[in-house]
Amino acid sequence: MKAWCDSTAPSGQNPYVWLLSLDGQSIRKKAPENIFIETDFYTIKGGDGSRDLVLEHGLSQLEDQFVRLRREKLSKRKPLSLEDRLTLCAFTAAMQARTKRQRDHWRESWGQALDLMERMIQWSEQASLEERERMASTLRGPHQELDENESLSYEDVKELVDQPMGSLLESTINVVTPFLMSMQLVIMETSSASGFIASDNPCCWFDMEIVKGKSHFRSPGIGSPTIEISLPISPKQLIYFTHHRLVMGEMYFNLDVDTSLVKGFNRRTLMYADKLAVSSRSTPMLKSLITK
Fold first, then answer.
1. Is this prediction's pTM over 0.85?
2. Does the residue 90 lie in any domain?
3. Contact predicate 5/280, CB 8 Å
4. Neighbours of 230 (CB within 10 A)
């Protein structure tokens, strides 16, 4: 978030970004280290009270790699190596997973499975041996044996509900990163004063065919041929992934020839935001994105 610090702030003041509530009623400034934080968000807690910070450390290393890449290559419009591209893809995948919205969605989804398992356990405690055998046969299906290595126990599912971030990050990064590596990557750029905005849920998966009702998908999926993925990385640059092969020659593409494109990406960022948007400027344009 430090990339969104207001460069016009008076000398001597602590750096700050501008936060806009999605109802447009509140615009305030705040230090970037004090936003979007939650105690032990990534901490894995053991049954004995221990705290495992492996996720925190792993994300910290990925962030360091990304910030260095943004500073040394992206901001200078330099070519990217295969390793650089892998860093961008892994960072984008992580940003898709590491939000409160994704955590709560994951927890709710697995919570439904946990509720079903608890009801099944309660039923089995009251059922007869014949009823339990009949149920086991139904679950297995004909000529099939349950493979304990491919199934989740009650404790496994409860862990997914109680501490979802570990599995959520691992599965998202492992699945999404290879897909992103196969897509076309473009760094969209603008020199406008307000530039690109960010949010508390900045990685946008957008599929116009779903919006138009022309897709059999009900929500944007990484395998959809028409999905577009965008992630603002500074007020001046935004990462854009697409399955389409765009004819533009270079990886860096300036949008200032058509300012409506910058506004379009900003509206998309707002559409996927949870509660707050982030800007490097407090301008009428920022609030107009909400009111329009």
1. no
2. yes
3. yes
4. 23
